[in-house]
Amino acid sequence: MTTTRAGSAVASLRLAVRRALVALPAPVREAPVVVGCSGGADSLALTLAAAAELPGRVTAAIVDHGLQEGSAARSAALAADLGARGVPAGVHPVVVGGPGGLEAAARRARYAALLAARPAPDSPVLLGHTLDDQAETVLLGLGRGSGPRSIAGMRPWDPPWARPLLGVRRATTRAACAELGATAWDDPHNDDARFTRVRLRREVLPLLEDVLAGGVAEALVRTAAQLREDGDALDALAGELLAAARLPEGGLLAATLSPAPQAVRRRALREWLLTSGVRDLTDLHLRAVDDLVGRWRGQGGVALPGGLDLVRRDGRLSLHRAEPPPVG
Q1: What is the pTM of this model?
Q2: Is 101 annotated as belonging to a binding site?
């Protein structure tokens, strides 16, 4: 689904939506659908294709980040245009702020607004990420050394987020908009070289395509899919290991964990820590935690984010609130 013939773009998108919905759990398939629509070609084409595929079941959620002059008027005009095409649309203004830079803050605000826009608990939110977006995500993860979870890219279904267009090129969404007579909005941020993703899109990927004689984006997406399959298998093994190692008081038995392969053991430890309320785990944290099992020498505990310490005593791992430093 990476090529576009004349007159076929809309049909390709409808087929992508149909296949994505068939793969969803039954309650989700039957629920009303929300599409996040920015007015760009990808999300606009997805909105119109989904509405054609699911008449009467689709609403569009337009998030106004308020980061550009005229954004409120542009969002209102998009809602009116979609309404005239038979797609109910609502505008959701958000305030962008917080840690992590502009991109991360805007993403947090956008996703929170889309979650709130769901009309039912089982309603999926369709996002317009394409094959090109997936390739960029894989490259970002590779460059940051974030591990296989990051290189595995975005999932087609990550409740409540559904991404029907991960097998579709941006050229197809633009062609679909042209077929439908829909004018897409080109966000100036998509050409702003201050953003890493923009430079990947404009500079890095075209260079790789040239040097490696094409097919790079598709190859990156295939790699991501293979890594997700491998990751799912390892996660299943880690879940079994974690269940076997759990103690009634909530800790873990080190003797049960230690014979397991490190990749499985670390996933089990990561899951346990996350479900225990530890956030912002890094690779260094996890390796230090794993050393309490795989390289035990009687060492002290591991300081974790959120003011928690992980300690090993009598062959058991347990989390404790860190002791405050002595006064005076």
Answers
A1: 0.87
A2: no
